[in-house]
Amino acid sequence: MKKLNFIIVFIFFACVVFGQDKENIVIFFDDNNAPTIDGYDETAWDIAPAVPIENAHQAEQPTVTAYWKAIWDYSALYILVSVEDDDHWPDYESGGSWFDFDQVEVYFDVNDVLEDGLGVDNPNTGHYQCIGKFSEGGSGVLQDIELDSRRPKGQFCYVLDGEDYLYEYKLDYESFTNKDGVAMSAGAFEAMDSIGFDVTIIDQDEGVTTVRQRATWHNTGEVNENYVIMDDAGTITLGYLEPSNNVETKIHTFSVYPNPVFDYLTINAEFDKLIITNILGKEVETIVNSDNRINIKSLAKGIYLIQAFNKGNLLGVAKIHKM
After folding, report:
1. 201 burial level (CB within 10 Å; 0-12, 13-18, 19+)
2. Are strands 264-267 and 256-257 parallel, antiparallel or unpaired?
3. Are residues 152 and 183 both part of a single domain?
């Protein structure tokens, strides 16, 4: 499925660590525009690259298209995971165990030595699994992560859009502890050259699969899954964006009305092209004209983002609620 590279303001830095088959992604800092944990890929995420989750765990065959993003500030670490699914089948519908059905799992290793043969299955060793379980009626509800020795303190929210879904997490640094029992902090995370990190998407399709099919960002399970051993997980580093004289760092917004809207929307901007995306960042419509009043009758009910362009330059964005 086509993915929109959603208003990436800066080119992200990603590299392979020399001597290791391990990808490292630099997570950018934004202390002025923290994402709202509401299950939407909003403008606060624009500085973060969309990193594809496209590896299969061992010989499994997941049928999802997914990506993750991350941002940090001095108060928390923020993670977004977007999943396009052909058949959403969570445990509360199947009646099975949550870890065998549709689920997002985010993993961390906060030790100085990452390749130690350990994983989340070994509590109090600096390895963590961050989850947010699907629940009936849970879409759009801000919830606390179940805190224990294997999970950090934080909040999450997911939004279902048909079979697709998007998760946002806000994680507190101080709830992470390394293998030596030392509590982490924003400064401790920032000082680390690399932090063990991975994302696993569990996929089940009703009437098609009988066991979980997993998509992963990095660890394909050649040694074992992240829950058991995180040695083959990727890594992240907390970094900064330097302002550029050639790049406008602020994403502007423009007003629209009415909002919520049923059929016709008026755009308060001088544009020659509009791109409309859904909450997962997927392009649903492109409008090439300069008429400020547009017809959106064909859009399904839901939340959308509108990007306005003029001569190829992004003017700004607006969020609308289509009724």
Report:
1. buried
2. antiparallel
3. yes
272: alpha, beta or left? (left if phi > 0; alpha if psi -120 to 50): alpha
What are the C-alpha distances in Å from 132 to residues 12, 54, 142, 213, 317?
27, 21, 10, 18, 29
Tokens 């403008």 locate to 43
Quote the CA–CA distance of 318 and 266 in Å, as a whole number.
11
Tell me if 304 sits within 8 A of 278, measured CB to CB: yes
Task: For residue 264, give the CATH number of its domain.
Answer: 2.60.40
Q: What local confidence, expressed as pLDDT, does residue 113 receive?
A: 95
Which range is least confidently modeled, 52-56, 58-62, 299-303? 299-303
The residues near 39 (Cβ < 8 Å, ≥ 6 apart) are 139, 140, 157, 158, 159, 166, 167, 168, 279
Same domain, 264 and 125: no
Q: Assess whether 200 and 282 both reside in one domain.
A: no
